[in-house]
């Protein structure tokens, strides 16, 4: 983070470019929103049996719309790509190429993603990262020549964050249904959801 | 976090009760929203000279509307109150009562607050926690008999989180003003703000 | 954390008192070092089939000798005890008593424990916290009247941290065995270990 | 972090290579241990007026001997170097090149460094990162063509971690001097120190 106020070249961050690059790179590295949503289903079906794929995809999209998440996704994929091209300096190249057990920066980036929806997602992240269901198994296949040391953890973290987001929203929906007093923040989306308002673009 | 689905006593979290308790306890412990907003002004005026108190208060309120923040505020104040009443077991009582330098759980809770708006707030938190301007100086006065070992850090963290929130919103406003393409998430509030829509209840 | 240098009452932290209280309270709340060590075996046997209980107990002890860990253990158990006695203010009492899913301060404290040995332990923590093997199942039994909302997460975190510590030490032992150049930090304990030096008091 | 046990190419992490690369790259990017030690003096002189440069350098070295710290240092410098060479993909290139205010992955890596010695270092990190004394001012000079978006935060974090380490050691020394009961962990180094044992290689 910079404090400087004057820059030589007029630099201006375009938030849409950051968001678009996030989607582009996830896709280019072979990960679809549907696959991440399936991890969410895997994690949450036990608690919310009626959870739909559409709902999960929406929540994954909302997680991916956060700048903090976009920064982590882009940085992690960049390091994976560089490692795949053999362009990192030694021994960082070896550590990322071999998904070294004592190298934990990938988990640190993953945690910054989970954290966006709070600590309740820590457990879910650890769980899918250990079990490696669905897309995570493919990303961990070391025979392909592809390197997904970061992406593997990032995808699990996005799914965990989306699960946390769902837990918060479900509580809001429940309170509205029961006509309980509730806090305004969660209310808006929950209300829209109950009214089956089309929220796709949000 | 619990996974159980059946409970002896029908327990149901009321999110409004949690939000109301947060406001109540901050107030009861002598901290006003205005004082937290002044810390935000202190931190952000350099970057946004036109920042108003109303804007800062609004952002502090938005931070305090987050469940993760409410949990940290309530837990920290509870420990302060217990320490003030001498009800903690030894040596925890001594450590919290004396704001022991090697005891850092207060900072851990503070960080869970800052984190809600991402890592860009870490620096601001450390800065006010060290300088102790405004309300933080009063909370650190050890001659009053009051114990604010947690509250001190919590208030700085809420101000830092509000500063991060402002940085994100200002970017969104700038993009809308410049008619740049922008991401939907930040857009809603920014648009309302530019239209001087009354957002008080949100 | 305090910066003040003069205090009314001559307060002096005794690190041994903090360490002793940590052991005392773990024991009083019904958790033995052996039970935590069994979680470590559960997590690490796959990677180190020859791992012994003694080795795991030693590593658990080393984790528990860290001040940061002691602070988290004592603070968490204190909140559990207060909740069990019904002494917290509402709605914090209800949230901790019922191990509320949207309350995540217990996980935040757990993470400060895991973090002491770095991010490589995040996954192990999440995994045992989800599966709840051994002692974690007992701590999660909601029919006993006891409240272990914090302790449950803390015990899993200590086991995950001990697992990370083992991973670091095993690497050091391997390098010494292979007569590789190695860094001094891990060397001392590894050398002692290979020489079957009695390291119990350390 | 990887769980796989069989790898195509016999890869074996050499911890000394990682440690050496850390020193090499810090040096190559123009940062000396003395400069980091000066930040430690800046942060700690108020509390320990007799603190020597040698002591600070030793503590900086100890921080840099931790694998977690080495991983963060190497990863951050790698990203700085790539950005300096213009080799990152857009818009990550722009964000790191311009030390974008809404990009916080540099702070996330910095925090993983501070965390190694616990939460008591958070405040010190934020403080130097904001004030930018000594070497931090030079690293923030945007007119040189060099990019130190990560290194800037990393150096501040190493100084903050060294400060935390000193706080822990000073407590141990004090307890030994007062012949108080103390915990074994901190005892060894403190005892050596008091005996003016040459601890340089450790």
Automatic annotation (TrEMBL), chains A, B, C, D:
Residue ranges annotated for the YutG/PgpA domain, each copy included: 35-167
GO BP terms, alphabetized: lipid metabolic process
GO molecular function, one term: phosphatidylglycerophosphatase activity
Annotated region (Disordered), positions in chain: 174-202
InterPro entries reported for this sequence: PgpA-like_sf, YutG/PgpA
Basic and acidic residues compositional bias, start-end: 174-196
Listed name of the protein: Phosphatidylglycerophosphatase
Species, as recorded: Paenibacillus etheri
Origin organism lineage: Bacteria, Bacillati, Bacillota, Bacilli, Bacillales
